[in-house]
Amino acid sequence: MRVEGKGLINRDTRVGFSFDGQRYTGFEGDTIASALLANDVRLTGRSFKYHRPRGILTAGSEEPNALMTVGEGPSQSPNTRATTQDIFEGLVARSQNNWPSLKTDILSVNDAFTNFLSAGFYYKTFMWPRSFWEKVYEPFIRRAAGLGALSGKHDDDRCEKAFAFCDILVIGSGPSGLIAALAAARAGADVILAEEDSRFGGRLLTETYTLDEKPGHIWVDEVIAELEAMDNVRLMHRTAVTGAYDQGTYGALEQVSNHLAAPHADAPLECFWRIVAKQAVLCAGAIERPIAFPMNDRPGIMTASAVRAYLNRWGVVPGREVAVFGNNDDAHRTAHDLAAAGVKVAALIDSRPDADVSGDFPVYTGAEVVDTKGRLGLSEVQIRTASGTETLKTDCLAMSGGWNPTLHLTCHMNGRPIWNDSIAAFVPTPNMVPGLDVAGAAAGVFSTKGALKSGLFRAKKALDALGIKTPSIPLPKAEDAAYNITPLWQVAGKGRAWLDFQNDVTTKDVKQAAAENFASVEHMKRYTTQGMATDQGKNSNVGALAVLADATGRAIPETGTTTFRPPFTPVSIAAMGAGGRGKGFAPERFMTSHAATVERAAPMIEAGLWYRPSYFPRPCETTWRQSCDREVEMVRESVGIADVSTLGKIDIQGPDAAAFLDFVYTNTFSTLKVGRTRYGLMLREDGYVMDDGTTARLGEHHYLMTTTTAAAGPVMRHLEYVHQCLCLDMNVRFISVTEQWAQFAVAGPKSRKLLNTILDAPIENESWPFMACGPVTLLGVDARLFRISFSGEHAYEIAVPARYGDALFRDLLARAEALGGGAYGMEALNVLRIEKGFITHAEIHGRVTAFDIGMERMVSAKKDCIGKPAAARPGLVDPERERLVGIKPIGEVKQLVAGAHLFNPNDEAVRVNDQGYVISVCYSPTLDSNLGLAFLKNGPARHGETIMMVDHLRRLEVQCEVCHPVFLDKEGEKTRG
Amino acid sequence: MRLKCPLCGERDRREFYYVGDAIALDRPTPDAGDVAWDDYIHNRDNLAGVTRDLWYHESGCSAWLVVTRNTVTHEVLSTALASDVKRGAAK
Lengths: 977, 91
Description:
Chain B: Pfam families: SoxD (PF04267). The complex is a heterodimer. By secondary structure, chain A is of the alpha+beta class.
C-alpha cells in the first residue's frame, strides 16, 4: 500500500511492469520489491528445499527470498534480487522455483515431510543403490531444488571490464562514507565514491533523521552536488565493491544499463571494475538480523529496517496492521515512523523486560512472538508474555534481532572479525587488509553522529598516510542515540524457526548438526547448507553460529565464523570474463596471404593464434589427401609456394651478438660467415630441447634468428632472461620482427627459375649456394633472400616488408602456376618434412634431448651453452633412452598412427614391454608408403629390425621396419642442386 | 596483485610473467658438479614466508625483475631489475 506524502520516488512518472504475467504500475525510483509491496503483492518466491511461500525480507542486496528472473529470451537474468532491481517501463519479472505456479506449487509437499528432510537428509538417504546416483537421484534432486535458470541460448548482451585508479576509495555513501569522501575531496585527493545502490545516501535515505535540521536526503543531495562539481572525484553509483585483493586492488561490479528500458546501443549491461586505491575507507553500513522465532518465514515478516525503508524511501507500507518485534531500541523507530505516517501499529513487542518503550500503540515488553499463521501471507501472530499468550491480528511483522556490521571486505585476505559484546555483533579486526580502514556502522558505530565522526576520522587517517593535510570540516548536527540490545538468538516454541530462509535451514538443523558432531562452524555450514545461499549468510550466519554456540556449550567468539570470501554480492561470469567470449578469448592472427588463401578455398587450421592453410583444393579433388599428395608431388617436381611468416623472427644486434648466440645455441654461430645461414638447436637449462630454427648472419654484429611458430614468445623471453640475468655485460639487443616481415618458401627444382623472373639481379647456384642469405631487390622492393629448405628440395625463403606480403604472395603463385607449380599448405609441408626426417614441436615436445633426436654432435665440445651441463647427466645420454627412428609398415596392414606404441614382435602389448611410441605419420606419395617418425629405445642401433606398432584404441597391430629417420635423399643432394 | 616495475612504475600483475625462484640468476660454472647443478635447476624450498622470485614484464618493457614478497601476507617487499641485482651480487 502506498502512503501519501512519503518517499523519494517520482510520483509524476508512472512505470508499467509485469510479475508472473500480471501487469502492475509503480513509480520512477521504485524497485521491483517496493512496487510489488505498493501493489499489495506479498508472495514473491518459494524456498529452495521445502518450497515454502516466501515474501520480501529486506530492502537491500542481502535479500534471500525475492529472487526473480528478469527479462525474456536469451538475455533473461535469473536470481535477480527484486530489492535491488529498479523497475522500468515494460520490465518482465517471473518468480522461480515453483510449478505449476507460485501460489500452487506441487513440490510444497516437501514441507509436509520436513521431519525427513532435515540436515544431512540427502547424504543419508540417496545412498543405495549406487546405480541410482546419476540416473534417478541426481536428476530428481536437481529438478526439485534450484533457483532460476539461464535461457540456455547464446546471450549477446555485452559486458565490459575496466581499470580505475584513485588515492582514496570510499565504499558506501551513508553518513560516514559521504563525510569521508567530502574530506578527501576537499583535501585534493583523487577520490572514488562507490555505492551499490541506485542512489547515494545509504540509511540517510531510509530514516527520518535530520542533519543540521534538514531531512537526511537533502543533506545527501548537497554533499553529492559538491562532490559532483569537483574534478578530483568520481562518483560511481550502482557499483558494488565485491572484493578486496592484494596491493590495494578492489573488484567492483557496476550495473550500467540493466535498469533502463531503452539503454544506449553501445552501453554494456554491466562493467566489472578493478579499482586500484592507495587507501580505502569501508563505509558499508550494517545489515539487520532476523530473529529465529517459530514460523518466522511467512510472507509479510520482514526486517524492521526494511519496513522503515519501504515507508520512508518508497512511500510504501507492507501491511495495514503492522506489528514490530525486536530486542533493541532501534526497532522502536519502525513503530514510531509508522505511527507518525498514520499507519496502524498493531503492537510493539520487545523481548527485554526492562525495555524503555513509549508510543501511542499497544506495547509488550518481556514478550516474544512464538507462532504465526497465514498460508500465503501473514495473518496473525501469537505472543507469549509474562502473563500468558495472546493472539494478535497483523499482516506485517517487522523484526529486529540487532545489527551486523558489513565487514566482509576486511576479511577477504584471510582476516577474522572480533566479537563485541556491547553491540552483540562481530566488528572488524583492524589492518586485516593493508590500506583499508573501516568507518561508521561497518565498524560498529551505529548513531548518525558517531558515523559522521568516524568517517571523518578514518578519512583523515587515510589522508595522513598519503601525506595530505585534512581540511577542517564542521560536522552537521545529527542524532546520537545509544544502541541498546539484549541478544535474542532464538525463541523457544513448537514450530520450526528459520535461520537461512533461502536454503530452509532452521535452528533444529543446526542443533542436529551439533548433535551429529558437525560442531565446527565450517562443518555445520556444509552439513546444513546454512550460509550457502545467494546471500552467503548475510542474514543468517551470526544467528546460526549463536545457535551452534549454544548447542555446543561454547561462547560465540570461541565458535568463530566461517570464512568470508569474495564476491560480496553475486557477480555474473559474463562481467568478470567480459571481452573473453568467442574470438575475444583467442584473438586471430592472420598472415599477409590470408585473403588470397581464403579466396582459394583453403581450409584454415589454427597454429597458436595464427591461421594457416591446410591445403589448397583444386576443383576435381574431393579429399584432403588428394590435394596434399598433389602438393607434395608439385614441390618435389616443379615449385611450391608456402607462407612461412608465422615463424618467429628475432633481430639480434650488437658487438657481442655472436658470443651471445654461442651461449644460447648448442652449436657455434660466431664462426658463421656474414651472408650465411645455419641451423641451430637451443636447450633449456635442464638439458632438454627448447627450440630449433635457422639463424642468418646479416652483418658482423647483426643476426636474424627464426624460431618455431609456437615458441616465438617463449624464445624471446628466454633470450631476454639469458641476457639480463646471466650475460648482462654482453652488448647485444633483441627485437621481435615476426610481424614486420612477410616470408614465403619457394621450394622445388624450379624455384630458382621462378625467382629469377622477379629478382632484379638473377642468382646462380654458385653466387647463391645452399645456406646463403642476403639482401636482394625484387620488382624494385628491398627484400631478403635465404637459401634454406624445410622440404629437402632446392628451395629459398624470400622475405619482404609485411606491407608487400599480399602482393608478393599473389605474384609468386601466378608465376609458380605458370611453371606447373602452385601453393602448398601445412599438410603437404608436414609430409615433405617427414620424408626428410626434419623435426617439429611434435618431436621436440619438451621431454627429448639432443641425444634423443640424434643431434648430440650439435652440442659443441668447445664451449659452454645453456643446457649443456645438465644434458651430460648420465640419465640423459643413456643409449636405452627412446630415440628418434623412422618406421615403415612391412606387413599386410599399412596404417600408421601417431601416439601408438611400439613392442617387440613376440612380446605382449602391455606397458612393461613398451619399446617407444610413434610421434608423426604421413603417407608419402614420393615413396608410395606410409612413413612414421618414432621414439624407440636404443633406436639408432636397431635400424633394420622389425617392430610391432600397436594401437589398442583402433585395434591395430602393424608390423614395421625400423629405419633411419631420413627417408629421402640422405645426402641432401637435392638442396644443393 | 600489483608489482612495481623499476622502469614502468606500478602495474597490474597481468602484465607480468612469473618464472620462479631467483636462484636462476646464480648459474653455477659448468664444472660445478651434480649437487650444485641439481640445486640450481631442480631443488626448491616451498617456503611459507619471504620468497625471491623472477618475474618478466612481458606486456611492458621486457625487463626481468627480482620480486621479494611474503607468500603469507602477500606483501611485496621490494622489486628490482634482475640486472641490477646481478651486478650488486657480483661486486
